[in-house]
Amino acid sequence: MFSNEDADPAYTAPPVLSVTALNQQVARLLERSFPLVWIGGEISNFTRAASGHWYFTLKDDAAQVRAVMFRGRAQYAGFTPREGDKVEVRALVTLYGARGDYQINVEAIRRAGVGALYEAFLRLKEKLTAQGLFDQERKRPLPLFARSVGIVTSPQAAALRDVLTALKRRAPHVRIVLYPAPVQGQGAAEKIADAIQTASRRAEVDVLIVGRGGGSIEDLWSFNEEVVARAIVGASMPVISGVGHETDFTIADFAADLRAATPTAAAELAVTPRADWLNSLSADAGDLRRAMERVLGDAGQSLDSLSRRLLSPSSQIEHQRLKLLGMASTLTHAVRGPLNRQSVTLAQLQQRWARHRPDSRAMRTQLASEQRHLVASMAGQLRARREAMAALAAQLELLNPQRTLERGYAIVSNAKGKVLHAPGQIKPRDVLRVRLAEGSVEIGVSGVQDVFD
Questions:
Q1: Per-residue confidence of the chain (453 residues) as pLDDT tens digits?
Q2: Which residues of 177-186 are buried (b: 16+ CB within 10 A; e: fewer)?
Q3: What is the rounded distance in angstroms from the CA atom of residue 212 to the CA atom of residue 155?
Q4: Within this chain, do residues 160 and 40 fall inside the same structural domain, yes or no?
């Protein structure tokens, strides 16, 4: 059995690492061994935490690795990846010490298979789509008859010659205004936008063509700038984009009211051929002539019908005179008849009223006589009542207790105010109240003597 005494005193035990220290050393080793590197794969198990950090797994057909993109980096990504997206990430290989998990810290992310320009194209397209610049409801229809067409392009561009040739062939009557601007190179986008704004401000054309010939994505990039898209949307007239070839799409195509596959196609969409207008005018003239002939024919038939019913003026006047006389006679009878009947009715009512009208003079005489009788009767009754009241007052005066007291009598009551009538109601030492004619006094009783004693 091994014991401390058996140990060699010169022996020193190796240091013991904690799990935290071990993971930290492994993380530093990985970070020094693998600098920032681009890694391609497919997004899986994507999660956006409440903190704003992104957590996902990057995988291919044979392996996978955990990945984290912190909020400070994720906010500049330009898009939010989804399950199954093919992406390329610029990441630092490290170790998450808390769990001992090998992972990568993502510094930048882009869609797989696209360069920086196409990535910028997609980001701007998503941004402007979210702002409603590409909505179909915003698109304006082209004018039916364009009298003038504006062109924003380079004067040296081959596309300009194609547009001018197409317009001259289809509609030589249309006035053409060129708003020159470089179509590629440094600052070209701003100059294209200035040309569009100049055309909008002048408002001298009915429709505006913005375009150039084909080229690489770098050559066409001026038409992928936000300033050009906003200038197209803000133009005062409809805008047709004709940039590149049929397979080329730019931000300007989405912002324009109508996209043409090529600059030549834009010219064909902007105007209707003169031959088509002439054919339409000829057809309209034929329709108008036939309509006028039909109206004139109908009017001639109506005139013939009216002429057959037309009478001579003298006959028509005589007929109207007789008709007027008859109407006057009818009107006279219609007015006089009711008037006569109402006069008779009024006379009858006056007679009846005279028979039933009362004799107001006799009634006034009778009323005055009755009034005199009433006044005399009321005066007699009033005298009788006054005499009766005087007799009652004399009787009342005789019964007045005060008069009895004035003749020398008194009213005796006990302390409770009860009037006493017999000596039996009084006890010695009672206090009595004696009311006299001119006041009252209180007296004490020393003794009580019956009247029969």
A1: 444 555 555 656 678 877 777 777 777 777 677 778 888 899 999 999 998 899 999 998 889 999 999 998 888 887 788 888 888 888 988 888 777 788 889 998 887 765 667 778 888 889 999 999 899 998 999 998 889 999 999 998 888 998 999 889 888 889 999 999 999 888 999 999 999 999 999 999 999 999 998 876 778 889 999 999 999 999 999 999 988 877 678 899 999 999 998 898 998 888 888 777 778 788 888 888 888 888 887 887 787 777 777 767 777 788 888 888 888 888 888 878 788 888 888 888 888 887 777 777 878 888 888 888 888 888 889 888 888 898 888 888 777 777 777 777 788 888 777 887 888 778 887 788 888 877 888 888 888 776 555
A2: ebbebbbbee
A3: 10
A4: no
Residues of the domain holding 408:
404-444
Q: In residues, how long is the chain?
A: 453
Note whether 98 and 237 are same-domain residues.
no
Unique residue bearing structure tokens 């070209």: 188
Dihedrals phi, psi of 25, to nearest 5 degrees:
-65, -40
Nearest to 79 by CA among 39, 125, 34, 134: 125
Write down the residue that tokens 């004799």 correspond to. 359
Q: How many domains does the chain have?
A: 3
The answer to whether residue 348 sits within a structural domain is: no
Do 195 and 132 share a structural domain?
yes
What SS3 state is found at 242?
A: strand
Same domain, residue pair 180 and 51: no
pTM of the entire structure? 0.45
Domain boundary among the residues 276, 294, 317 is at: 276
Residues 27 and 129 in one domain: no
Complete DSSP assignment for 213-229: ----TTTTGGGGSHHHH
Among residues 225, 243, 276, which one ends one of the domains?
276
Using CA atoms, how far apart are residues 250 and 225, in angstroms rounded to an integer? 9
Which of 207, 175, 208 minimizes the C-alpha distance to 193? 208
Output the domain CATH number for residue 236: 3.40.50.10550
Q: Is 439 left (phi over 0), alpha (psi -120 to 50) or beta?
A: left
d(CA 234, CA 227): 11
